[in-house]
Design a protein that fits this description.
single chain; about 110 residues; mainly alpha; about 40% helix
């Protein structure tokens, strides 16, 4: 008998238990769709997209602007740009340099 004393069974999964699922952003959904299409076309043509693009780069009939735009758009769609936050929130005192305060010596 599993679980606590007097319980039959083990209780199982409870609704809402565990860590919440992370919602996918629009860019992640688009990136997954592109990667899925790339895998399907790779199987269909038997050639990786990188190899096909490199063939276009070395082909003399393709315009240079077309070569650059195809390669750049493919790379940008598959490279994830990481961002980091470098916030240094420390209470270091006033940000304005005030002169030191002295008591009046009128005595």
């Amino acid at each position: 008998m599993a679980g606590k004393k007097g319980m039959k069974g083990g209780g199982g999964a409870r609704p809402g238990a565990g860590r919440p699922r992370k919602k996918k952003t629009v860019s992640e959904k688009i990136q997954r769709a592109i990667q899925k299409a790339v895998r399907e076309l790779t199987k269909e043509h038997g050639e990786t997209p990188e190899k096909a693009m490199l063939k276009l780069l070395y082909d003399g009939k393709t315009q240079d602007t077309v070569k650059a735009s195809i390669f750049k758009s493919y790379l940008e769609s598959n490279i994830v740009k990481e961002t980091t936050s470098k916030l240094d929130v420390k209470a270091t005192g006033p940000t304005i340099g005030l002169p030191p305060q002295h008591e009046d010596k009128d005595e």
